[in-house]
Amino acid sequence: MPINVLFFASLRERLGKAQASIDTDVPLTAHEVWQRSSGGAALPVNVLVSVNQAYANLETLVQAGDEVAFFPPVTGG
Predict the structure, then answer these.
(1) What domains can you pick out in the chain, each with its CATH number?
(2) pLDDT at res. 77
(3) Mean pLDDT score of the chain, rounded to an integer?
(4) pLDDT of residue 74
(5) In angstroms, how far is the first alpha carbon of the chain from the final one?
(6) Alpha-carbon gap, residue 31 to 43, rounded angstroms
(7) Is residue 53 pLDDT above 70, yes or no?
(8) Which residues fall within 8 angstroms of residue 36, CB to CB, at 6 or more apart?
(9) Which ranges in the chain belong to alpha helices (H)?
(10) What are phi and psi of 36, to 5 degrees?
């Protein structure tokens, strides 16, 4: 099973895609998932990460079959 990667808001616009899929036989950190799925694009400052719809950090290990989402910080008013 692949890792399903989702990009939201300005990240989706910046990368030109809403999602990606990564095949792997070994666990990856969320940061490694970003590197592979973004084509090596620099990771913007303060990007939020979720793994399986729970907040995570860039060092969180991700397994095949997991869903990883990257989104910019949310502001409210």
Answers:
(1) 3-66 (3.10.20.30)
(2) 61
(3) 95
(4) 76
(5) 40
(6) 8
(7) yes
(8) 22, 28
(9) 9-15, 30-37
(10) -70, -40
Closest to 65 measured CA to CA, from 8, 24, 6: 24
Residue owning tokens 């995570």: 56
How many whole angstroms separate alpha carbon 30 and alpha carbon 57? 7
Residue with tokens 């969180």: 60
Residue type, 3: I
| Cα 2 → chain centroid | 13
Q: DSSP 3-state assignment of 24?
A: coil
Q: Looking up tokens 């409210």, which residue turns up?
A: 76
18-51: pLDDT as tens digits: 999 999 999 999 999 999 999 999 999 999 999 9
Instruction: Give mean pLDDT, residues 54-67.
Output: 98
